[in-house]
């Protein structure tokens, strides 16, 4: 199996992070992202290791920006990350259709 695909699977929260960024117009502050994932039961260790995997694969990048009088760290999708998350979103939609709750 493809090494990059296996690495994506290593990050326990990788898919959730990508979907959260996709739903947030491709970017979110680190605090917003961590809070949203904590609500779905993602722990801090899984969150940070997944950020590392996504960055290593070139799917996200992080940038410091000044907002609301503070320096905040924002996580954004790269062009490659945007392509990958669109395919993941299609897969997610298929699962919702085929396996409704």
Characterize the structure shown.
This protein has 101 residues and is α+β, with helices and mostly antiparallel strands. It has a single domain (3-98), classed as Orthogonal Bundle (Arc Repressor Mutant, subunit A), CATH 1.10.10.10. It is built from five helices and three strands. The protein has helices spanning 3-10, 14-23, 30-39, 44-56, 79-98, and strands at residues 27-29, 60-67, 70-77. A three-stranded antiparallel sheet has the order 1-3-2. A hairpin with a 2-residue loop joins strand 2 (60-67) and strand 3. The relative contact order is 0.18. The model has no long low-confidence stretch (mean pLDDT 87).
Helix and strand topology:
Blueprint: H1 3-10, H2 14-23, E1 27-29, H3 30-39, H4 44-56, E2 60-67, E3 70-77, H5 79-98
Antiparallel strand pairs: 1-3, 2-3
